Amino acid sequence: MDIKTASIFVEDQSKALAFYTDILGFRKINDIDLGEYRWLTVTSDGSGETELLLEPNAHPAAKAFQAAIYADGIPATLFHSDELQQEYERLVAKGVSFKDQPTESGGVWIAIFDDSCGNWIQLVQE
Fold this sequence. Notes:
Number of domains: 1
Mean pLDDT: 96
CATH topology: 2,3-Dihydroxybiphenyl 1,2-Dioxygenase, domain 1
Largest sheet: 4 strands, mixed
Radius of gyration: 15 Å
Strand order of the largest sheet: 1-4-3-2
Order of helices and strands: EHEEEHEHEEE
Helix content: 25-40%
Low-confidence stretches: none
CATH architecture: Roll
Shape: globular
Oligomer: single chain
CATH class: Alpha Beta
Number of strands: 8
Strand content: 35-45%
């Protein structure tokens, strides 16, 4: 068994694709028209075969879940960085909004940013 695809709910798939590719630097893998929505996946150069599905939050339960964890400041997922401070500075320069500057917590560095699609995303450097 292997993890091939993980998903994150997004409010707008086109906006999410632009953010995750143009701002974060991920690469689009799939963009398949399914009618009202798309099978839309991205990946990072360091993730091997793992894809992130930018999944519409169209179902009421998905919308409620996403809104609740966002309001509580809970990250929807986390990404790893070997150079968190450098990544933080790069993203701030591109206009990404962070909760705080990178901080050390339990032997790891973390920073949490808003993906502009309804999610907090945590960056971690171990």
